[in-house]
Amino acid sequence: MNDAVRSTALKALSQAEQNLHWLDGHAPGIAKWLVEQQFGDDVPGDNGASSPM
Question: N or C, fewer C-beta in 10 Å, the chain?
Fold first, then answer.
C-alpha cells in the first residue's frame, strides 16, 4: 500500500471514530427527538403501493 492510500485510509478511520464518539454522546438527544417526531416502532404506510391499478 503506498503512502497516499495509507494516509487516506487512516484519515477515514479517524473520522469514523470521531463520528461514532459524537453519536455516542448525542444518542439520548437524538432518541428523544425521534420519539417527539413519532419515529417509533410503527410500521409506515405503503403510500398506496398495494392499491390496485
Answer: C
| pLDDT grade for 21, boundaries at 50, 70 and 90 | very high
The residue segments making up the domain with residue 18 are: 1-38
CA-based max dimension of the chain = 58
Q: What is the pTM of this model?
A: 0.58
Domains in the chain: how many in total?
A: 1
Within-domain flag for 26: yes
